[in-house]
Amino acid sequence: MKNIKFIIFITLLLSFTAVFSQEKKKKFENLEFSGYITNMQSFLFDSINNNWVNDNLLHNRLNFKWYVNEHFSTGIEIRNRIFTGETVEYTPGYAQMLENGKGLIDLSYNFLDKKSVIGNTEIDRFHLTYEIEKFKATAGRQRINWGRTFVWNPNDIFNNYSFFDFDYEEKPGTDAIRLEYFPTYTSSAELVASADSSKQISVAGLYKFNFKNYDIQLLSGIIKETDYFAGFGWEGAIKNVSFRGEASYIQAKEKFADTSGIFVATLSADYMFKNELMIQFEFLYNEQKSGQGINNFTDYYTQPASVKNLSFTEYNFFLNVMYPITPLLNITLSGMYYPKIKGYFISPSIAYSLSSKLDFSLIAQTFSGGFPNQFSGEISRQIFNMIFIRMKYNF
Question: Which terminus of the chain, N or C, has fewer Cβ atoms within 10 Å?
Fold first, then answer.
């Protein structure tokens, strides 16, 4: 199955490339092509005096979109990655984890699998769209972004993502059928049905409208055939401060009559000063139930969070400060605070534009928090330090 799938993938890629090579011809002027190549060196250590884990990621992305006519368009987006280093060499099952796709159709393939190097190709967007007047329908792998806030998204039930995965700018997609209707300029209605690799189906509807200069959304449905949910979100401003938020309540189908549901909510605000200094603040409340939650930082860092487990603590705070020193040089300082575990996350970064297509980034991430031992219950402090050096070329 993998070999057949890979042959299909190569055929599609060559077909799109062949079409793109003819883009100067009039009949292909509705084709769009873009992408990038990044090279990122990373270092992981708990103390500067201890052993460092060294890794490298070469990441190439190809984006194709074809506007077939005034009603139909299609797109395919592919990420090709080559992993090398100590994480690849010493992590059991790492190659299998990369190759196992989470969609209904597995479109991830390891074209290289050796002791210290893994090459993986994944199609994370592959969809067909039909539009006519106020109606739009999209089928296939796509990004369904219902989130309104920056870090934690209780409304993003289809493809929540990890804030820490900054190298995956496009964020994950889901295999779904999406119907959208736009009755007015400021309102819309959506109905989405999706399925994952375990063939569990999620179905949800969303309605957006504007009320007193606030964009409001209401949504409800069922997640993976196991949980009912209902939620709402908003986005607007209080004077010059942008103000937005989301909330969802999730209740297991089999326990519909009791009070075991999970309430998750975020509040977010940001403000830009005249000198272009921007400050963002966000608060997350993630109700915790017995036996529910994330028990260590590694799982929290590496896995896309589910809407029920956006964090391992009940109360969470986030602050982000961004400032353009020059038009080409930007600095950012992000931080999180987790009161329950007396923990924190800090991430300073520098981004410099070397040219119109070439960017350099230096990102550091530090986490510290106390977690109970699963056997003794004794609290031990986990400390992670990560440094990333990245070059990115856009085309």
Answer: N
